[in-house]
Amino acid sequence: MAAAAHHPRIKIMTCSQVVAVEEASSRFEVHVRQQPRYVIADDCIGCRKCEYACPVLVPHDFEGGLGARKAIYVPFSNALPQIALLDVENCTFCGACARACPTNAIDYLQEPESVVLDVGTIIVATGIRLTPAEQAERYGAGKLRNVMSALAMERLLAPHGPYGRVLRPSDGRIPDSVGYVLCAGSRDQSLKQGEGVSWCSRVCCMYSIKQAMLLSGTLPLVMITLYYMDIRAFGKGFEQFYQNARAMGIEFVKGRVASIEEDADANPIVRIEDLEKDGRVGEHRHDLVVLAPGIVPAWDPSRVLGIATGSDGFVATTRPLLSPCGTTQEGIFVAGAGAGPKDIPDSIVEAGAAAMEAANYLRASCGESRSIPKSLTQQLVGA
Ligand SMILES: Cc1cc2nc3c(=O)[nH]c(=O)nc-3n(C[C@H](O)[C@H](O)[C@H](O)COP(=O)(O)OP(=O)(O)OC[C@H]3O[C@@H](n4cnc5c(N)ncnc54)[C@H](O)[C@@H]3O)c2cc1C
Ligand code: SF4
Ligand code: SF4
Predict the structure, then answer these.
(1) How many whole angstroms from 211 Cα to the centroid of ligand 3?
(2) Residue of 82, 189, 181 whose CA lies nearest to 139
(3) Which of 44, 49, 126, 228 is 20 to 30 Å from 82 by CA-CA measure?
C-alpha cells in the first residue's frame, strides 16, 4: 500500500465515488465525487491531537464494532494517507478538535468536489462485503454478545486489535472454548426468507483454520471446535495445513448448525445435527462463537460502468479461459474478489493479469495494434 501511495505515477483518491463513466473514442471520461474529509489534506500532519481532544466516542467499524473511535480520527494505524477524517454524522461541532490542531487543518465548511478524469482503460477491483449479521438470525449474530463474525475475530487476533488480546466482548474474560460455524451465510438459501447466498465463499474454510491455529498459539489452553459441512482445502498446501490443524488438537464436527442460543452467563450454546454420530442432535457450550458469513460483491458496477454481472452479482467475465480479466465492455477489466470470492494469492495473480491486459489494450488503442498483439492471452494461445 505504501509503495503504491508513494509511486510517482499512481494517484490514490480516498473518500471518492465514481458516479458516472462515459466512453468516447476508445477512452473513458470518469466522473468522481470526492466527499469532504473536513480536514485540509495538505495541512494535516497526522499528529492525531484532534482525535485525542474529541469528546465523542462511537463504535469503531474497522474493529468490527468491538472498539471505539472518536468523531474525528485517523481511520486505522496503517491507513493511507495518515491524515484525519471527520465523521460528520457523529460530530457535535464542539470545536475541540479545531482548537487542538497545531496546523489549523480542520475545515468544517468543506464541500464535496467533482473531478473528471480522462483514462484509457479501467480495472474494477471493488472486492467483497460480508452478508449482514441479521441475515443469520438463528445464529444470534448481532444479538448474542459472544457471537461474532470472523472479520471481528481477525481484529481480535491482530497485534493492534481493539483489546490488544483475545477477550470475549460480554465480560472481557479470556475464552477457554471457542466454536467456529462455517457456511454461516453461504450455501444456504434458507437464511432470512430465502435471501441466503447459495454459493461457496471459498475462503472461509481456510481462514477459519488459520484463525483457529493462531488462537491456539495465542491461548495455548483454549479448546477449539469447527462445525462444518465439508472442508474445501482446494489450494496448494491447504490439505496439509488442514491436517496440521487436526494434529494440533483442533476438533472438527461435521454437521449443520441449527441454532445458537445463550445461557444465563452469555455462553453461546450451539445446537447441531452431528452427521458423524448418526445425525444425533447435540448441544455444545462455548465461551465464544465465530461465524463465517457469506460473501457478496461490495459494489454493483452495471449501472455506472455498463458491464454485466452474473446472477450472483459478481462481475461477469465473458471469456474466462482466454481472457480471465476481460468484462463485457472492451477496455474495462476486473481483478480480485469483485469477479467472485477468492483468496489473496489468487487476487494478486489476477491483478497482475488485469494489469497486463489493460497495458496491452492501451498499446493497441494507441495505434500500435499492428505490431503488438491485442492481448497477452491471445499471444500465449497463439504460441
Ligand atoms: C474474515 C476474512 C478473513 C480472510 N483471511 C484471509 C487470509 O488469511 N488469507 C487470504 O488469502 N485471504 C483471506 N481472506 C480473503 C481476502 O479478504 C480476499 O481475498 C481479498 O480481500 C480480496 O481482495 P480484493 O482487493 O479483490 O477485494 P477487497 O479486499 O474487498 O478490496 C476491495 C476494495 O474496494 C473498495 N471499494 C468497493 N467498492 C468501491 C467503490 N464503489 N468505489 C471505491 N472503492 C470501492 C473497498 O472499500 C475495498 O477497499 C479473508 C476474508 C475474510 C472475510
Ligand atoms: S467538533 Fe466534532 S470532531 Fe471536533 S472535537 Fe467536537 S465532536 Fe469531535
Ligand atoms: S487535523 Fe490537525 S490535529 Fe488532526 S491529525 Fe491533522 S494536523 Fe493533527
Answers:
(1) 35
(2) 181
(3) 126
